[in-house]
């Protein structure tokens, strides 16, 4: 008998379809198994629905002009819904409207949509959904349990290719044997990467990085122990005083989430321009915010808008703050650092594993900036993910010295799971004194006040990005702390 341990269980509702999710650890499997089961559709009903599909769906789909101009997935679904209703009434004459709608949704999901992948997309606990081929189960990355195998499998390699083609068509992109790699995104904002065999030698693949419906906030970070109260107050002070910051880290370490967290502290009377390859940031609705996105060229190689294009264009839009999804190349980095030197506040992410490595990446190819340019940067935040347990933590916070070197102020102690103070800020205090006139004592008093406000927000669980934006608005118009507590 197989020894199973249920690690977690919960329910999902997807288009009126009820799904039980269980996460099970067994002795035979090296990783836990993520199981889904549909509870309000019986096995008998599924057999009848399969019969309907055999009888109607295949011929109907072929009959639809899916390649016609302006004919979208929504058009197909509307047409399908009309035609399938008659057959459902034939097989389920006594079903009420709610049951009929649920059955239609199921048929659409399985035959025109993304099948059981749509169920996985609705689970807010999942960050990544990965199809490696039609032989292996689908894998998911769970916020709490890390990588899990699922009981979902693709029926064929052609089905994986069909999903990729369908997603690409909606975004005006194509994936073919001549162009077997595709980056796209779903209308929900989820990022999709697809590859075709033989480029991926074991079969066709699809990787979906889910868009966070609820963006991470500074309060989430504090409650999850991603960052300490003292560090959060320091970052708040830096953002308030328009100090430029770079967030470094490895893949999936939480760089973009930290970028979103920093935006919690922006004042409402400044113009913010964000620049991303794929829209992920969600800023408070109290802000004067203009989001811009890059665009890949079409199959003919025309119409592409690069990060450099929108970086240069953003400077003509009178920004006070510039938020950049990722610095990759020398040209865009040069423009951004020139923007810092001309009085703009810049917040960006960079792939690097620690503060010293971030400086090296900025000053060596392919970015290769002169080290003296780095003095315009004030702080480097390094994010880290422990891939054994899935924990994301702020690894380091470092100030950038006038000579371009990094000096670590706070660093994570992995054994204590705590962000510890390593040294006192020096350059930061000097910069604040120069531009604000605040003494070190006044800065420390301000940090203490910010910690009190953050503690109160944690105790009240104020973790909605827009509510936090409203509180920041009140703070910046110099209302006393007691006013914040009574009116937020």
SSE layout and pairings?
Layout: E1 4-14, E2 17-26, E3 33-38, H1 43-63, H2 73-91, H3 97-111, H4 117-121, E4 126-131, E5 139-142, E6 146-150, H5 157-170, E7 181-185, E8 191-195, E9 205-209, H6 218-223, H7 229-240, E10 245-249, H8 255-263, E11 271-276, E12 288-293, H9 307-314, E13 321-324, H10 330-341, E14 345-351, H11 355-363, E15 379-386, E16 391-400, E17 406-413, E18 418-421, H12 427-436, H13 440-459, H14 465-476, H15 481-487
Parallel strand pairs: 3-6, 10-14, 10-15, 11-12, 11-13, 13-14
Antiparallel strand pairs: 1-2, 2-3, 4-5, 4-9, 5-6, 7-8, 8-9, 15-16, 16-17, 17-18
Account of the protein in words:
With 488 residues, the chain is an alpha/beta fold. It has 2 domains: 4-209, Beta-Lactamase; 218-487, Rossmann fold (3-Layer(aba) Sandwich). It has 15 helices and 18 strands. The chain has helices at 43-63, 73-91, 97-111, 117-121, 157-170, 218-223, 229-240, 255-263, 307-314, 330-341, 355-363, 427-436, 440-459, 465-476, 481-487, and strands at residues 4-14, 17-26, 33-38, 126-131, 139-142, 146-150, 181-185, 191-195, 205-209, 245-249, 271-276, 288-293, 321-324, 345-351, 379-386, 391-400, 406-413, 418-421. A 9-stranded mixed beta sheet has the order 1-2-3-6-5-4-9-8-7. The protein has a 9-stranded mixed beta sheet with strand order 12-11-13-14-10-15-16-17-18, with helices on both faces.
């Amino acid at each position: 008998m197989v020894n199973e341990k249920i690690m977690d269980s919960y329910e999902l509702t997807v288009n009126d379809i009820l799904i039980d999710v269980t996460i099970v650890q067994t002795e035979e499997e090296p990783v836990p198994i993520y199981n889904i089961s549909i509870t309000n559709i019986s096995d008998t009903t599924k057999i009848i629905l399969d019969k309907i599909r055999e009888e109607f769906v295949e011929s109907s789909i072929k009959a639809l002009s899916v390649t016609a101009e302006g004919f979208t997935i929504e058009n197909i679904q509307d047409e399908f819904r009309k035609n399938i209703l008659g057959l459902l009434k034939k097989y389920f004459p006594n079903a009420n409207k709610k049951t009929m709608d649920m059955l239609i949704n199921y048929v659409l999901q399985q035959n025109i949509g993304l099948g059981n992948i749509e169920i996985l997309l609705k689970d807010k606990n999942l960050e990544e959904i990965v199809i490696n081929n039609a032989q292996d189960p689908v894998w998911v990355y769970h916020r709490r349990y890390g990588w899990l195998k699922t009981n979902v499998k693709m029926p064929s390699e052609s089905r994986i290719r069909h999903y990729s083609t369908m997603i690409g068509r909606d975004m005006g992109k194509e994936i073919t044997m001549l162009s077997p790699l595709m980056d796209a995104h779903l209308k929900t904002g989820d990022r999709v990467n697809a590859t075709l065999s033989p480029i991926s030698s074991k079969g066709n693949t699809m990787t979906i990085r889910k868009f966070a419906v609820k963006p991470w906030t500074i309060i989430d970070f504090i409650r999850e122990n991603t960052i300490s109260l003292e560090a959060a107050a320091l970052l708040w002070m830096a953002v308030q005083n328009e100090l430029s910051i770079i967030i470094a880290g490895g893949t999936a370490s939480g760089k973009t989430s930290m970028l979103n967290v920093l935006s919690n502290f922006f004042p409402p009377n400044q113009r913010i321009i964000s620049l991303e390859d794929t829209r992920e940031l969600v800023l408070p609705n109290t802000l004067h915010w203009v989001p811009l996105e890059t665009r890949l060229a079409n199959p003919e190689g025309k119409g592409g808008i690069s990060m450099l294009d929108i970086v240069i264009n953003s400077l003509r839009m009178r920004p006070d703050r510039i938020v950049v999804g990722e610095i990759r190349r020398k040209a865009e980095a040069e423009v951004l650092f020139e923007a810092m030197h001309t009085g703009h506040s810049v917040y960006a992410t960079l792939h690097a594993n620690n503060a010293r490595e971030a400086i090296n990446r900025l000053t060596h190819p392919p970015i290769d900036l002169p080290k003296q340019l780095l003095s315009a940067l004030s702080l480097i935040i390094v994010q880290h993910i422990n891939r054994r347990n899935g924990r994301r933590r702020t690894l380091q916070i470092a100030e950038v010295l006038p000579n371009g070197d990094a000096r670590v102020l706070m660093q994570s102690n992995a054994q204590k799971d705590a962000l510890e103070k390593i040294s006192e800020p020096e350059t930061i205090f000097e910069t604040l004194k120069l531009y604000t006139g605040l003494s070190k004592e006044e800065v420390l008093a301000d940090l203490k006040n910010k910690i009190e406000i953050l503690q109160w927000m944690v105790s009240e669980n104020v973790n909605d990005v827009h509510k936090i934006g409203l509180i920041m608005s009140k703070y910046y118009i110099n209302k006393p702390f007691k006013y914040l507590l009574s009116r937020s």
